[in-house]
Amino acid sequence: MEYFIFIVKKIVYVFFDVLEIALLARAILSWIDQMGELKISQILETVTEPFLFPIRKLCERFHWFENTPIDMPFLLGWLLISLIRTVLVLVG
After folding, report:
1. N or C: which end of the chain has fewer CB within 10 A?
2. Are 64 and 72 in contact (CB under 8 A)?
3. Inside any domain, residue 91
4. Of 2, 4, 6, 25, whose CA–CA distance to 14 is shortest?
């Protein structure tokens, strides 16, 4: 059972590593490909948007960060990943 928990935690860590890299790549590409026409930009949006969409909707619903020039749901998503990692380290 201990081995199973170890494997599941490693899978979760890898998932969040990949998601974090995809978010970073999407942020960098947003400066280069502002219209999102490159295929890699579309792939990164497809991978990261299911994670960011609920955060965006929550911010829109409560009118948080409406007039900020920074993509705050992106930053909140990044912080959420860090929080989840910290909790996983503390629990296990």
Report:
1. N
2. yes
3. no
4. 6
Express the helix, strand and coil content of the chain in percent, nearest 5 each: 80, 0, 20
Q: For 29-49, what is each residue's pLDDT tens digit?
A: 989 988 888 999 999 999 999
**Closest Cα to residue 77, out of 92, 61, 58?**
58
Task: Give the integer Cα–Cα distance in Å for 48 and 23.
Answer: 6
Compute φ and ψ for 85, nearest 5 degrees.
-60, -45
Query: Looking at the chain, how many residues does it have?
Result: 92
Task: Give me the residues of the chain with pLDDT under 70, please.
Answer: 92
The amino acid occupying position 14 is V
Domain membership flag for residue 92: no
With respect to residue 7, please indicate whether it lies within any of the assigned structural domains.
Answer: yes
**pLDDT at 36 (0 to 100):** 83
| Residue 61, domain extent | 2-86
